[in-house]
Design goal:
CATH superfamily of the largest domain in chain A: Winged helix-like DNA-binding domain superfamily/Winged helix DNA-binding domain
CATH topology of the largest domain in chain A: Arc Repressor Mutant, subunit A
Distance between the termini of chain B: 36 Å
Strand order of the largest sheet of chain A: 1-2
Order of helices and strands of chain B: HEHHEHHEHHEHEE
Helix content of chain A: 40-55%
Largest sheet of chain B: 4 strands, antiparallel
Strand order of the largest sheet of chain B: 3-5-6-4
Largest interface: A-B, 65 and 69 residues
Largest sheet of chain A: 2 strands, antiparallel
Structural class of chain B: alpha+beta
CATH architecture of the largest domain in chain A: Orthogonal Bundle
Radius of gyration of chain B: 22 Å
Number of domains of chain B: 2
Number of helices of chain B: 8
Oligomer: heterodimer
Structural class of chain A: alpha+beta
Order of helices and strands of chain A: HHHEEHHHHEEHH
Number of strands of chain B: 6
Strand content of chain A: 5-15%
Chain lengths: 193, 266
């Protein structure tokens, strides 16, 4: 199979998939093709679809590749088909999602100490919607569940991987900013000539 | 606890607890997902205060006022709200104490609370960033096998109303409407439960999927009715059966029926 054929073949597999297609999965379909070759094809496909400037793009999402519509047409798409608008997360649910995304694996108590309020209901909603999952148990008294995000989380928020999350404002940075208001003012200007 | 204590057998402790419990037995408590830190941040933002220099007395007063009003509404606020109230009072008293003359590196009594507020704000901001991305199922779409084209009408883009603004809107409305009923009708005379009210509101929204916030209370004939209608609305919003939205922060609040959420949606 020449490179052009391979690319088209990969493209058609991605086209029919409703989940991101990873290099791992592709190498099962093409056992005789080197992974480096597959990666090269994918990279070219992403670039080509961008150059075509069509209504949809090939995006790298959750460790795989997926065709997604251009955000510019979201309104027209949801006018055509109301039910594609599936995203429904309340503000508290988003907060808990953010805490879990950045602090995972994390227990419910740790989440609640940040939010200052019981979060079990919200956690259950997120588990049900498969945005988060149980990653294990923490080795402390009571062995509480540890929560982390799912590949669906990456898909929903359009992230390649967890490393793709934007950097969080550092807490240290903030506490440093806090200090000037606490520490006493420097020397008065009495000595100034 | 599973049993009921009648008022004349109550101990002092029970009486104290009762202050924060509901005097109306027919009201079902509505639980809040937003916590006390969220309320504090709301108050700081609303008053345009410097988070590093919070006027504790003012904030404490407003915070307590809020709790009082939430009690009137019979909103179930968790013990955490009281813990923060106590913490605020403690900070307030510490700040009233005269400062020692000796220069000492003493921590601002507010520092720990501020640190918590900021940590929480960091994650609130992170949540805002997340939802500001091109979100699947809202901004971008992927392949789906089910064709539901043209099943429902299009919808204008509206911004969600946060809980505190909603409570404030209700408080204003409630205070404006209160004069209508000079004499409070006793609660015992009314038999409607919150579940019945929720059904009524749903039935109304099914007939008319979008109504103005104030229209929701059109049929209300008593303060009790107002409160229970509002609680029904909060419950429906919490369970995501309705969206509470507006065009802009100043415009009228709208209630939109969104029906049951199918499992499997994000």
């Amino acid at each position: 199979m020449d490179l052009s054929d391979l690319k088209k073949s990969i493209e058609s597999i991605i086209f029919i998939s409703d989940q991101p297609v990873s290099v791992d999965k592709l190498s099962l379909a093409f056992p005789n093709v080197e992974r480096a070759q597959l990666r090269k094809c994918l990279k070219e496909l992403v670039e080509e679809w961008e150059e075509f400037s069509r209504g949809f793009l090939l995006s790298e999402i959750a460790g795989g590749f997926q065709f997604r519509t251009d955000p510019r047409y979201s309104e027209d798409i949801s006018n055509y088909n109301k039910k594609v608008r599936k995203f429904r997360l309340s503000r508290p649910a988003l907060e808990v999602t953010a805490i879990i995304a950045y602090k995972q694996p994390v227990t419910r108590v740790e989440i609640e100490s940040i939010r200052g309020v019981d979060s079990s209901g919200v956690i259950n909603v997120l588990l049900e919607r498969r945005v988060i999952e149980i990653k294990g148990r923490k080795e402390v008294i009571g062995k509480p569940f540890l929560y982390g995000t799912t590949p669906e989380f990456l898909e929903v928020f359009g992230l390649k991987s967890l490393n793709d999350l934007p950097t969080l404002k550092e807490l240290d940075e903030i506490t440093q900013n806090l200090e000037p208001s606490i520490t006493p003012e420097p020397e008065s200007n009495e000595t100034t000539l | 606890m599973g049993y009921c204590v009648s008022s004349n057998t109550m101990t002092e402790l029970n009486k104290e607890q009762e202050q924060f419990q509901t005097p109306e037995p027919c009201l079902v408590k509505v639980q809040l997902f937003e916590g006390p830190l969220d309320l504090l941040l709301h108050l700081i933002k609303k008053n345009d205060l410097d988070i590093y220099d919070i006027p504790i007395a003012k904030i404490t007063e407003q915070y307590i006022e809020y709790l009082e009003f939430m009690k009137v509404l019979n909103l179930q606020f968790a013990g955490e709200y009281l813990v923060i109230a106590a913490e605020l009072s403690l900070i307030k008293s510490k700040m009233l104490l005269p400062k020692p003359v000796i220069e000492e590196e003493e921590e601002d009594p507010r520092a720990e609370l501020v640190r918590r507020l900021i940590e929480y704000q960091v994650y609130k901001d992170a949540a805002t960033d997340l939802v500001g991305r091109d979100v699947l199922g809202r901004d971008v779409f992927k392949r789906e096998y089910i064709d539901n084209s043209f099943e429902q009408d299009e919808e204008v883009e509206l911004i969600p109303v946060d809980l505190w603004s909603l409570i404030e809107a209700f408080r204003d409305f409630y205070q404006r409407r209160s004069y209508l009923w000079a004499e409070e009708i006793s609660f015992e005379a009314e038999s409607i439960s919150i579940d019945d009210k929720i059904e009524q509101v749903i039935a109304r929204l099914q007939a008319q999927p979008q109504i103005k916030f104030e229209e929701l209370f059109d049929d209300c004939s008593s303060k009790f009715d107002l409160v229970i209608t509002f609680l029904a609305l909060l419950e429906l919003a919490r369970t995501e059966n309705v969206d509470v939205v507006q065009d802009s922060p100043e415009s009228a609040i709208l209630i939109t029926y969104s029906g049951e959420v199918e499992s499997g949606s994000f």
